[in-house]
Structures are given as structure tokens and as C-alpha cells.
Amino acid sequence: xxxxxxxxxxxxxxxxxxxxxxxxxxxxxxxxxxxxxxxxxxxxxxxxxxxxxxxxxxxxxxxxxxxxxxxxxxxxxxxxxxxxxxxxxxxxxxxxxxxxx
Length: 101
Fold this sequence. Notes:
three-stranded antiparallel beta sheet, mainly beta, 8 strands
């Protein structure tokens, strides 16, 4: 399994997160998230001990096609796990309400 770089979201921002995953070629991938934070000043978790969970939207778990999904809450980190294939997945994450009006 190969993993994308981690995407850090603002867990203090209100609102959800839109995610678009675009497949090129042939792949099998899963969108993952965690609430563990290696940078936490009060409860840091070692990088190699972070617990990753598959997205609750089963359309982006062991997926093989492009998809859009969303989070109603902002996990601390997200990543894409590429299980197999000869292609790639590009993830775009848009977090709503990061800047107050």
C-alpha cells in the first residue's frame, strides 16, 4: 500500500469539508482520516502510532473510480491509501467556513 501526504484540516473551523478524488489509470484506493495529532500540545500521538480509519462513505473505500464525498466534521488529518493499480488518485479538499465573514 502507498499513502499520499497527510492533509491537515482546521479542526477549529465550523462547517464541513468537500473532497474530490480523481482517478487516472487503474487503481484501488481508500480515503482515510484520523483524529490523532502528532503535534498536539496536550496529547501527542507518535507518527507511527496514528490510527487511521476508512471514510464512513463506502463510495470512497476500496474505490476504483473518481468520486466526490464530504465530511460533516473536520478530521485532523486525511490521506489517500492506494492499495493497487498502475494509476494515481488526485485529492482536492475544500474546507468550508475557514474564514469568518
